[in-house]
Amino acid sequence: MKLITRDTDYAVRSICYIARKKNSIVCVSNLVRDLKIPKPFLRKILQILQAKGILKSYKGLRGGFKLALPLHKIFLVDLIKIFKGSFKLNECIFKNKSCPNIITCVLKKKLGAIEKYLFSQLKSISMASLLEEAK
What we know:
The structure is a single chain. The chain is elongated and about 60 Å long. The chain has a domain at 6-86 and 125-134: Winged helix-like DNA-binding domain superfamily/Winged helix DNA-binding domain (Arc Repressor Mutant, subunit A), CATH 1.10.10. Helix 1 crosses helix 3 (39-51), helix 1 (6-20) crosses helix 4 (76-84) and helix 1 (6-20) packs across helix 6 (127-134). It contains 6 helices and 2 strands, in the order αααββααα. Helix content is 53%, strand content 6%. It has a two-stranded antiparallel sheet with strand order 1-2. It has helices at residues 6-20, 28-35, 39-51, 76-84, 106-123, 127-134; strands spanning 55-58, 64-67.
């Protein structure tokens, strides 16, 4: 299971880069050049972030992107959900079929506890905290 996909990684790097530029509109070509992210991937990621209300886009000659939310309101777990969907460690092999051991399954309980802990840790990581630790 890969928790941080390439799209999530690029999203985090892009958001942090845009945040460092303070209130400026950042053009895609600067992001591509400085972050060394392929332009087609980056455009798709930025458009998704804009559609989800994390970035604002500006068209025209001086167009680009800037943050739509404060950094302390953008969490890693939200970016993972946007690009990967909800994550499950304890997805049963029976999927939608009824499992005879669903109530007593020890593995399901243990993985459920790990998943809950992981989710709580991811919820505590904001883009603001990442930038602060990077200083």
